[in-house]
Amino acid sequence: MRLAAAFLAFALAVLTVVVSRPAMAGPYEDALAKFTTESYADTDEGLGLLATSGNPLAVDIVEALADGRLLFNADAKTVYVKKADGSLIDAATGQPATGVDEAALKPVRANNRVRRAIEAASGALSLMNPDPAKRLAAAQAVFKSRDAAARPALETALSRESDPQVKAALASARAAIVLNDSASPEADRIAAVDTIAGAGNQDALALLQNVPADAPAGVKTAAASAVASIQHSLAIWDVAQNIWYGLSLGSVLLLAAIGLAITFGVMGVINMAHGEMVMLGAYVTFMVQEAIRTYDPGLFDASLIIAIPIAFLVTGLIGVVIERTVIRFLYGRPLETLLATWGISLILQQAIRTAFGPTNREVGAPSWMSGAFEIGHLSITYGRLWIIVFAGLVFLALLGTLRLTRIGLEMRAVTQNRRMAASMGIRTNWVDAMTFGLGSGIAGMAGVALSQIDNVSPNLGQSYIIDSFLVVVFGGVGNLWGTLVGAMSLGVANKLLEPYAGAVLGKIALLVIVILFIQKRPRGLFALKGRAIEA
Amino acid sequence: MSHPDTTPGARPPALLGTQGAIFLAIVLGAAVLIPALNLLTPAGSALHVPTYLVSLLGKYLCYALLAMSVDLIWGYVGILSLGQGAFFALGGYAMGMYLMRQIGTRGVYGDPVLPDFMVFLNWKQLPWFWYGFDWFPFAALMVLVAPGALALVFGWFAFRSRVTGVYLSIITQAMTFALLLAFFRNDMGFGGNNGLTDFKDILGFNVQADGTRAVLFALSALALAFGYVLCRYLVRSHFGKVLIAIRDAEARVRFTGYRAENYKLVAFVVSACLAGVAGALYVPQVGIINPSEFSPANSIEIIVWVAVGGRGTLAGAALGAVLVNYAKTYFTSGVLAPYWLFMLGGLFVAVTLFLPKGIVGTFLDWRSRHAEAEPDVPGATPKPVA
Questions:
Q1: Which regions span the lipid bilayer (chain B) (predicted)?
Q2: Residue ranges of chain B whose pLDDT lies below 50
């Protein structure tokens, strides 16, 4: 009897478990049960349950349903997923199903309402995708669609999310739905405004500007003030972005002008061929890359690093040759050096055109120069970042050369008082040649950097020469710091003017400003004082 | 420098002198002879000058006047303007606007008032700055006023602030570069990139006709002659002496009590007006004016013409302009075309190195060394120090 009772109890327990399994198990199993009733309303409901179930199998179920591969046995209340190869998988366990009578299976059917539910469910499921990047994208998609149907899934996802970035995106998306849901309490909607305002980007701005007309006044007021504050902060970010572009342009100007600051500023030679030295540097980069492509493609990422010293030596050497053959006969006649060097620039341009053809040459970017990253709302490309870094390094190196080395000392001595320097035993001729070579070599290094952002053609130098002279004159001749400040302020001013005036008008305005500035300070920002200026 | 021009108490040189007389004889002779050979001889004749050549020579003469305008300020005042092309182009645009208005309904779109490019841009009415350009006297006035006013404003600021030497050169270059960018814009209302072209009539005469071309050539020659006499008159007057003194030692002139900036300003404005006239005569003969005339490279090239001919000699500037442009036409049209820039560049270098006084200056030096001091050696070949 005892045994019988025990058996009965066991049997009952088993029975209870077996019978009540669908009822007792979680939302996933409930959802599966809904698919076996052959009712669209139940299927719809089942999808909703599925989406919030968090079961890893849910994705497969929704996909199978969308493709008509979800089968069910109405009597056994079991659901199967038919795979592409025809095999069946038990939806409840995810294990291959064996011994199933396929004839008794029917596909779960879908109408338009169910299909919409499928879409919402798959969106909701991707909110819980194991890959954070996918979750983020899904959250942003909901933020844009503001689909109220996704709200339960969002809230489930929000409660389990651990990644702070995704969590913020989910919260924004939820807030976007709440804000536009006229059924939500006013306090919740105002809180939603605050959450959206926290995102602070263009999308948030658009959302807040389009608060439904029937929203309570409190919500509207909160949205309006949030819009104002976002616009304010976006305007600041915009200015910051323009300043970044400006610094980038300024560093390009600095690279182009700093060699000129040596030849023009220190030596008083108006070197119109300076732009061609930049152009030659770019062509050296091209040739280095060609050689690397031919002999050792693996070195391609190092091509710019290799090109820098070669460009410096090649253009520096050409500079020394020009100084020895032409410039040295023209010292003290700055306006005539202008003519002679203009002639040299024509010859160099034509020589390159003859050798390489008039068309643009392709200079590739190494992998470390491509791509971008974001700081706040600032987008920063690696290419521009490296050019700024490079310009800074070149500036420091030049400053160091002039300040700390023997040749730098001699250069400064010759600049300040040629005769006295000669009396002290400095070979002024040699110093002249080295100074001109240094200025030209720096232009060549600038060419390596500019080959990354400009077309490498024989006319490359022409587009920089006017700007470079303006930078040097604006900053003050004979002062490297002046060149730095001049380049950066012209670059930033240019980019700040552009949004208001357009690129061309902005440039014109800048030229006029520089012309007027020169009237005010005829010797530039940082003028040399003393006798040197009258010489 | 002990030049006849600058020696106190010396007999002032004649207005023209031998050199000037020769120059004027050549220019005025050409003004009569070339149109005559074009119009009065039959096409097959050995003496016939074809019309294209008349226009080409006319273009050279405009360049010669332009070079002379540069020589007036560079050779005699020491202002190296790298923006002279801007004044030339402004004069050219003023004339071009007149010629555009003369097209009338013969344009592609047949609009009686609006030039084709404005119809193309869907403009409804003529911008205010185009008013009056259908009336020739107004356009002719603008040929002088537009460049003159720009030079006045620019020079007034620059000379008062004592911007000199290289700084002045750089900002004149910035000025013409800014104008280049501005005229490239379609919104400016000057035809943008394409400029003004497709001209039909000037004062009722067909610009393509032989007779009109011949007259335009003669007018260019007369303008050059007039420009020469005007510049000669200016530089040999008391005013011109002050200019030369400013070139050689501006600070000393100022300490002597002269307002150097006013002298420079007058010379600068006169020079700009001459350049404007040259541009105005250039446009109908070439048939187009576009923003590339503002390009800084063009202005630098003008400097080379003057340097080749001889800075501070006036006639030399004109000679340099004609020679360099003849060489350019000759070389760029033949098999040597790819080498033209080598030659032009080489010319720049060679002239500055070996011929700092240019052809005429070197010749005058040579003659004064071989002959007795000429009473009328023209003014003041500048010392090579710029």
A1: 20-40, 47-67, 73-95, 135-159, 166-184, 214-235, 262-282, 302-324, 336-355
A2: 1-10, 374-380, 383-386
Chain-chain contact of B300 with A504 (C-beta, under 8 angstroms): no
CB B81 within 8 A of CB B172: yes
Measured between beta carbons, the chain B residues lying within 8 angstroms of A334 are 165-166, 386
CA distance A211 to chain B (A): 39
DSSP state, A265? I
Count of the separate structural domains present in chain B: 1
Q: What was the ipTM of the complex prediction?
A: 0.84
Contact indicator for B183, B190 with CB cutoff of 8 Å: yes
All residues at 6 or more sequence positions from A383 whose CB lies less than 8 Å from its CB, including other chains: A365, A369, A370, A452, A453
CB B379 within 8 A of CB B244: yes
Residue B346 contacts A, CB cutoff 8 Å: yes
Distance to chain A for B211, nearest Cα, Å: 39
Flag if A522 and B161 touch (Cβ within 8 Å): yes
Backbone angles phi, psi at A477, to 5 degrees: -65, 140
Is B376 among the domain residues? no
Q: Give the count of alpha carbons within 13 A of A40, CB side only.
A: 9
Contact indicator for A303, A289 with CB cutoff of 8 Å = yes
How does DSSP assign B360-380, residue by residue? Answer: HHHHHHHHHHHSSPPTTPPS-
d(CA A273, CA A95): 77
pLDDT for B186: 87
Spell out the residues 6+ positions from residue A420 whose beta carbon is closer than 8 angstroms to its own.
Answer: A413
| Strand stretches in A207-261, DSSP E | none
Cα dihedral A220/A224/A225/A226 (nearest 10): 100
In a domain, residue B303? The reply is: no
**Model pTM?**
0.78
Burial (CB count <10 Å: 0-12, 13-18, 19+), residue A431: buried
- Contact (CB, 8 A) for B273 and B150: no
B345 touching A, CB under 8 A? yes
Q: What separation in angstroms does the CA of B159 have from each of A102, A446, A532, B153, B167? A: 100, 35, 21, 10, 11
Residue B160 within any structural domain of the chain: yes
In tens, the pLDDT along A247-280 reads 999 998 999 898 888 887 667 788 889 999 999 9
Largest CA distance in chain B: 70
Distance CA(A322)–CA(A432), nearest Å, equals 11
Residues 303-342 of B with CB under 8 A from A: 303-304, 307, 338-339, 341-342
Per-residue pLDDT tens over the stretch B353-385: 988 888 898 888 888 888 755 444 444 455 444
Domain extent, residue B53, equals 20-296
The values of phi and psi at residue B114, to 5°, are -80, 135
**Of chain B residues 150-179, which have a CB less than 8 A from chain A?**
154, 157-158, 160-167, 169-171, 173-175, 177-178
Q: Give, in degrees to the nearest 5, the angle at Cα A18 between A16 and A19.
A: 65
Yes or no: say if A376 and A306 are a contact pair by the CB < 8 Å rule.
no
B354 lies in some domain: no
SS (H, E, C) B114-170: CCHHHHHCCCCCCCHHHCCCCCHHHHHHHHHHHHHHHHHHHHHHHHHCCCCHHHHHH
pLDDT digits (tens, 9 = 90+) for B142-163: 999 999 999 999 999 999 988 8
* Lowest mean pLDDT segment, chosen from A239-243, A302-306, A375-379: A375-379
| pLDDT tens per residue, range A72-108 | 887 777 888 887 777 888 877 778 877 777 777 888 8
Would the CA dihedral through A506, A512, A516, A518 be positive or negative? positive
Summarised one tens digit per residue, pLDDT across range A141-188 is 777 777 777 777 777 777 777 788 888 888 888 888 887 777 778 788
* CB-based contact, A357 to chain B, within 8 Å: no
